[in-house]
Amino acid sequence: MLVDTHCHLDAAEFDPDRAQVIERARMAGVGAFVVPGVERKSFGNVLELCAAELACHPALGIHPLYVEEASFEDLDYLREKALEVVAIGEIGLDFFVEHYDRNLQVDYFEAQLKIAREFDLPVLLHVRRSQDAILASLRKAKVKGGIAHAFNGSLQQAEEFIKLGFKLGFGGAMTYERATKIRHLAEILPLESIVLETDSPDMPPSFIGKNRNSPEYLPKIAEVLANLRKITVDEVAIATTENAREVLELE
Fold first, then answer.
1. Are 218 and 198 in contact (CB under 8 A)?
2. How far apart are CA 46 and CA 59, in angstroms?
3. pLDDT tens-place string over residues 172-230
4. How many domains does the chain have?
């Protein structure tokens, strides 16, 4: 069995066939799905989906690219819902998009880290060109760990996340041969520090072109990781599933 540790199954792209997508993924060997919310207005949809689909596990957070539309009352609402989730997320910092208010991102990020610490929850991190800033906030917040989603930092940064109790998420980007840095990290990092994800419907793997991404493609992503590490797919499945269960305390 595999765990998709980051898939936005609540997204509108799945409205026409969400149940069928989940069933196809199950038939392919994906037994659990972590569905992160990204803004308050999506929280209800995420919780409703996960209540209806027992294999889906909710996470809630205010994504850094949504903080300018958010209010601090949304943080109070997040706190109210914290007992219903497996993680706080998707939260973090995005310094790739230059015109977004970095100080506001940091304010929301650190406020949500406090909620995670208050409820002893892991966090799902959005880390885009912001690894060092996120590490600095994590060292202050002392949360219990979590997952650095779509990791694309250096080996040294990866090691720092691991020291802080984080697993590193690898998905579609790893399937592109030109993504040499990501593929090298996937090859050499400790297997016990790696989890798999699709980020569906985004970040499509190389073998589907520009089509809608889906959790049903996770087994092929696992094959890519197995080939990079020169181990079996079963070894990848066993290790990454155990890693996901450990860090998110999934049953």
1. yes
2. 8
3. 999 999 999 999 999 999 999 999 999 999 999 999 999 999 999 999 999 999 999 99
4. 1
